[in-house]
DNA sequence: CCGCATCCTTCTTGATACTG
DNA sequence: CAGTATCAAGAAGGATGCGG
């Protein structure tokens, strides 16, 4: 550690970007967050229907991971049939500017690649 | 296809978020972009020194992928010893707002987790 | 100095079937 | 409705050593 010679050096322990990407990286987590932001509150099968291609396993795992990291809250209603609602926590909402920036960048790029694409929502 | 009933539905072909994360996801690509943004132009070994923990393979692969996706430009000088400089392209620069938003979110979160952390740069 | 080739390990994602 | 269990496959990440 000696002094401040190594200021600015990145490693896996102090790198904000590695840290952040570990939380929101992967294939489905950002799309899930984005859908929750758009719809405020969604049930498990709402998400599943909206995220075409996602499997139960991936949806369950992604939601659990997001919940454990405090980005998503899970509210369970004790009824039959079961009802579980997901929504963004405050910390999740704080990520929205980043999500929007990623979306805007990606959408513009994607549209340039494929001019027929007009309805991307996620 | 029928009609527009499925507007807003996400799949892997039209989902901007999946598309974007495929380009910038993974462990090292965002940290590399962030360092290039901070330093404008960096040589291969500059990056390697700054991204502690990265191996040649991962740095090479990540740079190549970013270059192929048009986010990073690679300028090779024909000299001995070799000199190669990397920097962000216009499209890479367009991602900076997203990078900043991710950084700000992650930094605040990380600082709350670990109050001793004051010097995170990446 | 700037990488690539090879080989190996681990993590992520997924298909399918089943349950309270 | 909201998930789990199990098994399988692929992708990502990494160690080591070599080469122009």
UniProtKB/TrEMBL annotation, chains A, B:
The keyword Transcription regulation applies. Keywords: DNA-binding, Transcription, Transcription regulation. Gene3D superfamilies: Winged helix-like DNA-binding domain superfamily/Winged helix DNA-binding domain. InterPro entries: HTH_HxlR, WH-like_DNA-bd_sf, WH_DNA-bd_sf. It comes from the Bacteria. SUPFAM superfamilies: Winged helix' DNA-binding domain (SSF46785). It holds the Pfam family HxlR. Residues 15-114 form the HTH hxlR-type domain. PANTHER family: TRANSCRIPTIONAL REGULATOR, TRANSCRIPTIONAL REGULATOR, MARR FAMILY. This is Helix-turn-helix domain-containing protein. It comes from Clostridium tanneri. The lineage of its organism: Bacteria, Bacillati, Bacillota, Clostridia, Eubacteriales.
């Amino acid at each position: 550690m000696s002094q401040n010679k190594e200021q600015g050096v990145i490693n896996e322990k102090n790198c904000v970007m590695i840290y952040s990407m570990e939380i929101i990286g992967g294939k489905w987590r950002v799309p899930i967050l984005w859908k929750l932001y758009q719809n405020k509150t969604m049930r498990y099968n709402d998400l599943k229907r909206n995220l075409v291609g996602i499997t139960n396993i991936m949806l369950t795992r992604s939601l659990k991971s997001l919940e454990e990291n405090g980005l998503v809250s899970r509210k369970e209603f004790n009824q039959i049939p079961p009802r579980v609602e997901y929504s963004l926590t405050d910390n999740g909402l704080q990520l929205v500017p980043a999500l929007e920036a990623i979306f805007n960048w990606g959408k513009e790029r994607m549209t340039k690649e494929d001019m027929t694409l007009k309805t991307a929502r996620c």
